[in-house]
Amino acid sequence: MYPGKYAVAHPDRPAVIMAGSAEVITYREFEAGANRLAHFLRDRGLKRLDHYSIFMENNAPYLVTCAAGERTGLYYTCINSYLKADELAYILNNSESRVLITSAAKLEVAREALKLTPDIECVLVVGGAGDGELEQNYEKAVANFPNEPVADEQLGAAMLYSSGTTGRPKGILRPLPKCLPVEQLPLFEFLMEQWRYRDDMVYLSPAPLYHAAPQGATGLTIRKGGTVVIMERFDPEVFLDLVGKYRVTHSQLVPTMFSRMLKLPEEVRASKDLSSLELAVHAAAPCPVAVKEQMIEWWGPIIVEYYGSTEGLGLAICDSQEWLAHRGTVGKVILGELHVLDEEGHPCPPGEPGELWFEAATEFSYFNDEEKTREATSTDGRLTTVGDVGYVKDGYLYLTDRATFMIISGGVNIYPQETENLLITHPKVMDAAVFGVPNEDLGEEVKAVVQLVDDIAGDDDTAAELLAFCSENLARQKCPRSIDFEAELPRLPTGKLYKRLLKDRYWAEHENRIL
Prior knowledge:
Elements: H1 6-9, E1 14-18, E2 24-26, H2 27-43, E3 51-55, H3 62-70, E4 75-78, H4 85-94, E5 99-103, H5 107-114, E6 122-126, E7 135-137, H6 138-142, E8 157-158, E9 172-173, H7 186-194, E10 202-205, H8 212-223, E11 227-230, H9 236-246, E12 250-253, H10 255-262, H11 266-270, E13 279-282, H12 289-299, E14 303-307, E15 315-318, H13 320-325, E16 332-335, E17 337-341, E18 354-359, E19 365-366, H14 370-375, E20 388-393, E21 396-402, E22 407-409, E23 412-414, H15 417-423, E24 429-439, E25 443-452, H16 460-473, E26 482-485, H17 499-514
Helix pairs in contact: 2-3, 4-5, 10-12
């Protein structure tokens, strides 16, 4: 998020373009806006290693509010804009944030959260009027501060929170070296090379800016002097139109975005100009093999997949050619040393799934949560994990699922990701979640909950068709015993399936019947 020399060399180049409104922030404006907010934060008494938070939908000033922290030695926390007031309050308190930057659209939620956050000293409201001593209009509050950098510029960084799909979100804190903001953390230098970023690139960001992947990608684009085109929300056809309109060179997506684009009519997909695309990165969730095959056939061998985590424990990566030779892999580990361990902590044989542990490539801890940090660390302190399950074959890593979603049915371990990946390829299925539900005889049985495409009825005939589809393509124990239908599954805008909400409902119903 630090424009550096580009604010001088190319002051009128667009740094940010909003896809919906076409609002533009030039490099001159980006630099001035970040500096004014940096001065404001210093004036409020925030010093190096202090914290502030950002709770907004995708909007034009968003990256500017991040950039101010990145040049003042501060930790800034970008918070999921879909959270409820109590969830927001938890992160504000846990992160020890002193200032909150929000928007008019999110102000009511923020106000409810503030009743539970006594340490917030100031709230800046983008595009909205302040109400009282605590709240201030963002634009007016920073207007009279200098456009030039603060005298004590230092590198700051994001402290993001895990998505909380399996429990309370955790703040991921990386040590921050004392250096000038023109430098950056080694991990991001490494990613810039892997993602083949270059001067004058145009990056299309289809995901919420509070998430780690778009945070990293947009920030590195600004550091390269490129242009970031931000979608207010993802729409498959609009995404394709934007590639042609702005001659987009780079983007990063998640597999559900691929699936939604592939379900567009063939004539619509064929009409779009994608010739400017140089690289499309994807991550966040395993991509079904059939979906990946179709995307490479459509876009060409420009798709790069990586596996990593916000914690930065390690990184696996593969390009299209590697993937076609090893279908289903997320690549070779190129950062951090991987260990695949069984439940007793012993190494698994090649090809056998186990929990993924890393001799971490970068240092981190969970902020204000020593217990979670200990849980993620091996007893000897050498290894860390985020609870993913996978295996290595011929040097390539394959993901199986999250350890917390493993189904134990009749003593057999079943990883539901494979079943989800199959169901989502069915032409009538828009999204799918598979998990274990109570079974008095087996302990658990496999349940599928499916979101159908528009105009398809969720009736017994459709359920029978999908069950037969699973039986034709999966081993018997992996097939759902039953299928339920939902209008929409609780998938986060970042692409992660919030499966715990569904699973908890079924287990709660079972417990209530027992009671």
